[in-house]
Amino acid sequence: MPRTRPAPALAALFVPALLLAGCSAGPGDAKNPAKNQAKTPQAAARATSGPRIQVTAADGQDHVSVTRGGRVTVAGGRITEVSLTTADGRAVRGGLSSDKRTWTPDAALEHGTTYRLTAAAADDDGDRKATKKITFTTLAKNDGFAATYTPENGSTVGVGMPVSFTFNRPISDKKAVESAIDITSSSGQPVVGHWFGAQRLDFRPQDYWKAHSTVTVRIRLDGVKGAEGAYGEQSKTIRFTIGRRQVSTVDASAHTMKVVRDGRTVRTVPITAGAPSSTTWNGQMVISEKLISTRMNGATVGYAGEYDIPDVPHAMRLSTSGTFVHGNYWGPDSVFGHSNISHGCVGLNDVKGGNDSGQDAAWFYDHSLIGDVVVVKNSDDKTIAPDNGLNGWNMAWSQWTAGSAR
């Protein structure tokens, strides 16, 4: 998070107080008969209530957000003075809004620092005034938690893409954290979260996203207590777009992959799947990563010494455990569409270097999005675990919703 270097100014901000009106002539004012008329109900209410100062911390509060702490707002009047200093007297610079109803520090406050805040305001006529003084301490840097998430803001993804959060600390108050994340779709599909353990939270609708819809993710974790000594600091809104609907079905026994886009079969590709000793998972898998070329070493997935290929072309990840759909240039052409020889991946015909756009692997890579679905069936293996990659679609909706903390 950004940090503030307090300015050496002697005072944070002083706004000249509004000038008071002239003295009253008493119950009646012969020089200004209009002032003798009864005030409207709205004016009477303002005169009774006066300015109301609101700050983003309570007096004596700890663990205050470094991004929201120190903000001042006023209803029913205007700010006349704000002073925000550290406990040792260092002033914090800030800015006043054009309507003089909001004051905000110029930058994020320091972590683990005690501040003194004094704010003064007056009503629009300058007749009634209010002052608020508080002391608060910001969140210590080691007491924060953060989340990485996918997909990225502004991206276009396939219909199977969940919204997945991974937290850097275990979360015990799952309800508070999940409730601070709101996800909506222009399609109107309800979206529900599911916890995989204490550090991963995925969201998805009951069925795949509607093609060409827009998904909005509002993250309001700043100040949320996720566990003892763990408070969130993120507050942002991201949006991503769902592309066309593409679902490709791999039939491991028929050695084919049928690519269906928006309800129409656009290509049937010969493939090679996992050999009998290293079968491919069944189930619905989501492309989570695209790599034009990557190294694949059997040692990383339990096949030490069996293969180490430094330049696998057109690789698209389907699982965390190492399942890919990728180009294969080392197998003879005769295996594609006829035999299963891989170590669990789905292989498509390709050339070394991957520079032939006419190859099946190159075509599929070029026509796939992160978030597209690849379904594998008729493999002599079990269904992939829902948390092995972004593959929560392999969980029944009733089970998925049961994993929500809301």
CATH domain fold name of the largest domain? L,D-transpeptidase catalytic domain-like
Instruction: Quote the beta fraction.
Output: 35-45%
In the predicted model, the low-confidence regions spanning at least 5 consecutive residues are: 1-38
Give the count of helical stretches.
4
Please identify the top-level CATH class of the largest domain: Mainly Beta
Strand order of the largest sheet: 23-28-20-21-22-27-26-25-24
Quick check: average pLDDT?
Answer: 90
Just name the CATH architecture of the largest domain.
Beta Barrel
CATH H level of the largest domain: which superfamily? L,D-transpeptidase catalytic domain-like
Counting helices, strands and paired strands, the structural category is mainly beta
InterPro entries: Big_10 (IPR041280), LD-transpeptidase (IPR050979), LD_TPept_cat_dom (IPR005490), Transpep_catalytic_dom (IPR038063)
Protein name: Ig-like domain-containing protein
Keywords: Acyltransferase, Cell shape, Cell wall biogenesis/degradation, Peptidoglycan synthesis, Signal, Transferase
Pathway: Cell wall biogenesis; peptidoglycan biosynthesis
